[in-house]
Amino acid sequence: MKKLTGEKVTEYVLILVIMTVLILIGNMVNTITDKNPDTFVSVLDGLPGLLILFAIAFVGTLLGALVPKVPTAIWITVIGILVAMPYNTLMAPVVVEQVGKIGLLPAATPVLAYAGVSIGKDWVEFKRIGWRGILVALLVMIGTYLGSAIIAQIILSMQGII
Fold first, then answer.
1. Which listed residue, 38, 41, 45, 126, has the most CB atoms within 10 A of its CB?
2. DSSP of 91-139, one letter per residue?
3. How far apart, in whole angstroms, are the C-alpha atoms of residue 21 and residue 54?
4. Alpha carbon distance 110, 124 (integer Å)
């Protein structure tokens, strides 16, 4: 078990607060731009759902720091599943309703930006990978994007949306 310091917990909280604010703003902008007044989610409307996500991420991050043999992503996933599964009749309806107000794209954008900044901090390590590693990373990203676009095109065409 790792020793969890107050400084580390403060760092986790600060990162999660920044992400929460960015996601709230992004979610509001996203629902404004879809031109449907019925789907607008204000900052106050989205706050309960994001506080739930904040709590899940915070507890999962703490558990990941305390039990380093199990990755933090697994802890967050398990906690999220447990609080939202249909058999959890106490919390699941509230969790699903509130978190359902948060869009995936506004939530993913700041997280991916943070991941990019984290990689940027380790630029020396990244350069050590060499040109082959960078080429493989670029090909994987391009392949993932193209694969997603092709699948989306096929499904949307089959449904007659496009």
1. 41
2. THHHHHHHHTTS-HHHHHHHHHHHHHHHHHHTHHHHHHH-HHHHHHHHH
3. 11
4. 24
Element (H, E) at 150: helix 131-158
Q: How far is CA 110 from the centre of its chain?
A: 8
**What is the tens place of the pLDDT at every residue in 51-92?**
999 999 999 999 998 988 899 999 999 999 999 998 888 899
- Taken in order 132, 134, 137, 139, the sign of the CA dihedral is negative
pLDDT in tens, 7-65: 889 988 998 898 888 888 888 888 877 677 677 888 888 889 999 999 999 999 999 98
Q: Where are the domains of the chain?
A: 6-121, 123-162
Alpha carbons 32 and 41: distance in angstroms, whole number: 8
